[in-house]
Amino acid sequence: MRLSLVARVVAGLVGVAVMSGCQGPISRTVGMSVEGRPIEISTLGDGGDVVMMMAAIHGDETVGVPLLRDLEKHLTENPRLLDGRTVVFMPVANPDGYAHNTRYNVHGVDLNRNFPADNFDASAKHGSAPLCEPESRAIKLVLDEYRPNRIVTIHQPFNVIDYDGPGEALANAMGRYTDIPVERVGSRPGSLGSYAGITLGIPIITLEFDELTHEEPDHILWQKYGPMLIEAVRYPLDDVGTVQ
Ligand SMILES: [Zn+2]
User: Fold this and answer.
1) Is residue 99 in some structural domain?
2) How confident is the model at residue 237 (pLDDT cuts 50, 70, 90)?
3) Is residue 4 situated within a structural domain?
4) How far is ligand 1, taken at its centre, from the CA of residue 45, in Å?
5) How far is the CA of 18 from the centre of ligand 1 (A)?
6) What is the whole-number distance in angstroms between the Cα of residue 158 and the centre of ligand 1?
7) Tens-place pLDDT, residues 225-235
8) What is the rounded distance in angstroms from the CA atom of residue 136 to the CA atom of residue 140?
9) N or C end of the chain: smaller count of CB under 10 Å?
10) For residue 239, is pLDDT > 60?
């Protein structure tokens, strides 16, 4: 009797979710770090306009982790923003670095210098070859699978909205929602910006918060920076999925 009641309640909840068009994020593991930690993504929506939101490719630049969790929650609660879109979240791109609070992976490689861009520059800190690290390979697999229309990757501490490839208009759109300045910093060798932006031609934003931002409580972070991230999702479509 009790089981049957639970079953009916669960069925009812599922029915409500389906009827209202809401669906929570779908998570999966896309690779494993050097130390065997899962590299996870989650997706929301199933539209053709694909946005990839990443954080913590430098494991000690952690402010994007709660921000992306809050963005995921906001989009789940406001599914109209997902009309025509798919949002791919990779909140912790470097899980070993995140666990150890270091920039690098445990091989001492800066993953944001390990991509097969023309300017790749082999060294101990960049890796002996592009994609020699499992974490950068996992990111590349996600790019290949989802072919995002734009990418935002969150860093610290330079307080700038930097862009690579055809990312200037997106940077300016995001810049309207924050006092962080839009500034072209320059392409780093083998960076995700160089690879995705220049080699693949995908608008990519390297969003740098300042050093102190991580000291702010999560709800203040979301209040201050959520609108800028929502704009990155909406751009360049308005909220009914029409090209502006
Ligand atoms: Zn960084």
Assistant:
1) yes
2) low
3) no
4) 28
5) 39
6) 9
7) 999 999 999 99
8) 6
9) N
10) no
How many whole angstroms from 62 Cα to the centroid of ligand 1? 10
Domain that holds residue 90: 23-234
pTM for the model: 0.88
How many angstroms separate the first and last alpha carbons of the chain?
55
Is residue 130 one of the residues assigned to a domain?
yes
Ligand 1 centroid to Cα of residue 148, in Å, is 21
DSSP-H helix ranges across the chain: 2-20, 64-77, 95-100, 134-146, 168-175, 192, 218-234
- Cβ-count burial 45-60 (b if 16+ within 10 Å, e if not): beeebbbbbbbbbbbe
Ligand 1 center to 79 CA (angstroms): 31
**Cα–Cα nearest to 131, from 76, 78, 122, 173:** 122
Confirm if 114 and 127 have CB atoms less than 8 A apart.
yes
* Total number of domains in the chain: 1
Q: What is the CATH number of the domain that holds 221?
A: 3.40.630.10
The verdict on residue 17 lying in a domain is no
Q: Which two tokens stand for residue 171?
A: 């940077």
Tell me the C-alpha distance between 46 and 28, whole Å: 15
Q: Compute, in angstroms, the gap from residue 61 CA to the centroid of ligand 1.
A: 6
- From residue 63, give the alpha-carbon distance in Å to each of 89, 98, 156, 205: 15, 11, 8, 16
Supply the DSSP symbol for 146.
H
Of all residues in the chain, the percent with pLDDT exceeding 90 is: 84
